[in-house]
């Protein structure tokens, strides 16, 4: 790796994490020579990534100039694709959402229709034609999908519920369409990343549970996303479910959309919730019925509340095992069902504190997503910004010549 690129990334990282700094602050934090720091600052100022932030108060000598990361030096487009809908956003380089759009569209329609909808959303977001200094405004595009992702290649791999997506080159589609850096990841990974960044500093271990149309999880270990060998880490929805009441004699285990039977998602996912709330629905109708099931739950329907609490306890059994195995400091619960009140969350807490190892739950916090519906798009934007400003990406943002 080029040492110059590493130095630029290190200096810019100080401003991104610590706020405004003087030259002396940068020298003290990095140990670089003053001449080297001056070169790095000039390069970042020329690229528009830093801007002046005024001067320190005078202490009798020359006032020290302060600099800050300029989050308005470009824009990011992100698309958080779920099983039954998508959320797109225009963000600044700090991950702040500037504008957003949503649409209900099942991911099972396939990559071309869903990505066409994403492109139409992006075209309607208020992206400036040019950035500061006349350069391109768009710096990168990131997409998340509800299935395992081969992260380096940017494509879905054997996704259980994403008909037609297996091996589709999502990152290639983005690069051809927009000509910028492209990032593709699993939807719950980016939610976990966003919630980790939004939480208190120093928390390096977090477990994210998404309860939406399906069930998934993301794992932050030592401050990094744990992806697994094939990108399938955290697929908690397809573990065997431990039911609070054994099925009646002769009853068949619930069939899951992954093709297996008895999965957690087959009893506690949104489509399973809709199946049990509206008996008689055909399998393909359960996903489309999720919004109506959620409306009933929000309205206080007693049957819906009872089913949601049962789902929470089933989820709690799976999360309890994850807590004992991974020992996270925080469990975050997000997704559509986590935003309908405490019904699911209460069931999860009840079982996790009863079933997990006492040491693992001694200081454990179980909370709803702090970023609400935006966990995914904010996590995407922050992850994309990290990629852009890493040593391997930052050289592409500097002026040529």
* Gross CATH architecture of the largest domain: 2-Layer Sandwich
What is the general shape?
A: globular
> How far is the first residue's CA from the last residue's CA?
20 Å
What is the percent of helical residues? 25-40%
CATH-derived topology of the largest domain? Nucleotidyltransferase, domain 5
- What would you give as the CATH superfamily of the largest domain? ATPase, nucleotide binding domain
Q: Helix- and strand-based class?
A: alpha/beta
How would you describe this structure to a colleague?
The protein is of the alpha/beta class and 401 residues long. The protein folds into three domains: 67 residues, Winged helix-like DNA-binding domain superfamily/Winged helix DNA-binding domain (Arc Repressor Mutant, subunit A), CATH 1.10.10; 138 residues, 2-Layer Sandwich (Nucleotidyltransferase, domain 5); 170 residues, Nucleotidyltransferase, domain 5 (2-Layer Sandwich), CATH 3.30.420. Helices cover 39% and strands 19% of the residues. A five-stranded mixed β-sheet has the order 6-5-4-7-10, sandwiched between helices. It has a five-stranded mixed β-sheet with strand order 13-12-11-14-15, with helices on both faces. A hairpin with a 3-residue loop joins β4 and β5. The longest helix is centred in the last third of the chain and has 25 residues. The chain is globular, with a radius of gyration of 23 Å. It starts with a helix and ends in a 7-residue tail after the last helix.
